[in-house]
Every structure is written in structure tokens, then in C-alpha cells.
Amino acid sequence: MKQNYLGILFTLLLTVVAVSCNNSAVETIESDTSEKEWVLILGERIRVANNMLLFENEKEFDALVKKIKLYNDKTASFTKNVDFAVWSNVSSEIVEKGSFTSLYDVYCEALKTAENYYEKNGGYEEFKKKYKTLYFPEYKDDYSAYLPVKDINVSRLLNIEGKVSISGVISDKRNINSYEELKELRLSIPDIEEKEPLNFEGTPLRSVEIINMTVGKPYYDNNGKFKIWIERPESYGVNVCFRKKGFLGIWYNFSSESKIDWYLYSQGVPLSIGPSIVSRQFSAHHYSFFASPPVTGYIDVTHQETDHLHRYRLGISI
What we know:
The structure is a single chain. The chain has 318 residues and is an alpha+beta fold. The chain contains 6 helices and 19 strands. A hairpin with a 4-residue loop joins strand 18 (295-304) and strand 19.
């Protein structure tokens, strides 16, 4: 009888322990579930946990990437008349409700503060450590911070480590790992393999001098501490690209302001374009226009630094 009593008691103890363990597991799951919140991105309700977006499937993710691209196009600053429009890229906020910090947000923050680091001894190492999830090629003299994602729209849905959860699987979407890839994407410095000019002519603030440019060729200014070049990624658009030379002669990207003035003619008739178009962010500044060909003329590019104003001109013929 005593043995049966002890056996029953032992069984009860095991049951209590098992129930206790199960309750603990449930609490952990419930606690984990409670940490999942929602953010509203361009009208789409997306779950987020520990600053990582959770998508049900790849289709849902791809659809939101496409929506972000269309949104950027629609919210760009532009002027328009019958057959001509022009706009510059903008960095519009896409999170309408809730809290989420993306890899793109980190990149923007980094380049807004880059000058505070690159211009002092030991600043680059400090900068690189603080923004370690970005890509630093350290190729030749190019020590710029690069967004490590080929599609900038994708980067806006990745957490600060470049990750996202799709169908319950965490995926690292960072896909730039070499300078060759940057060259293919036309994001690198075009003359990085060449020796820099020995002599430079600085353009003083408010200078009226305008330098005629050739696509893809960097022009140096401010005693060789600044370079600018124009890319033509499409027939009806230009990228204003630039870098600044920091401590120990290394080149870096940073946030600044450029302005475009268009002087174009369609079949000999001047195109009315309204005010100048301004972009304020890191390189490159993208400007696009639409007009019925043939189009000829030129654009004037003005780039503003703290103590220098740079003016350049590029001929257009389509």
C-alpha cells in the first residue's frame, strides 16, 4: 500500500513538472508573438519583429518592392507642360505607421554625417565601425561607403543588417561584394585606375566660369579635393556623380546639393521647363526628362559645397 502511495505521489509530481514545463513553453511563444507588431508601408500592413519585416511569401515581398519604385517615381519633384517633364530623385518616407529602420535609412544617415568622420585622423575607422553593415571596398583610393544592395528599392525593406523574413526563412539580401560589381552598376569612380592630374584649378564661390563636360569623365575642382562627373544611364536622363577627398587623400561619398537648368530645343522650338530642379542627397543625383525627339541643347549643372560653387555644362543631342 505504501509503495502504491509513493508511486501515485511520484506520478503526480511528474505531471506537475510536465504541466509547468508546457506552461513555460507557451509563455515563451506568447511572449515572442507579443513582440510581433505591424507597420504600414504605402498602405500595406506588414508584420515586424525585432526590426525585421515578416512577409508571407516572395510574391508579397516583390509586390511591395515594385510599389516602392512606382511611389518614388510619382512623388518625385517635377515640372511639366505638353511634351516635356523633368524630375529628380527624392528620398520619401514610406513607413506611414509604426516603427522600422531599414538598411537604406542607415545608409542615408551615414552619408549625411560622412564629412564629420572622413575629415579627421582616425575618423574613417570610426565611421566604418559605426556603419559596419554597409559595403566599404577600400579599392585604390575609393574608401566610400556603398549600399550593399543592387536594387535600392529592395534595401528599403531590409533591416539594418540587410535581412528580411520571407515564408518564415530569414534571407540576407546584400548582394554587392566586389568593386567589379560596383563598376558594372556604374556606381564606382570611373577614373579610379588612372593617376590623378598633378595640377588643379579651384573655382571660387559664386564663380561665373562654366566648364564644358564630357559624359563619364571626372572633372576636378577645389584644388583637387573634389571631383564630379556625369553619367547617362538612359537617353532622357543624367546622373550627377561626385566625391570628396578626405584625410590622407581618400575619396568618399557624402550628401550635398546639385541643381539642373535645362536649355533644350525640340525641332528648333525652345522647351518651356519652369524653375531649376534641385536634389539634396548623396551621389548620384538622378534627373530625367521627357520630350519628343529630336532634342538638342545643353544642361547646366551647379554643385554647391560649403565654400565652393561648381558650374558645369553638358551638351544634349537625342
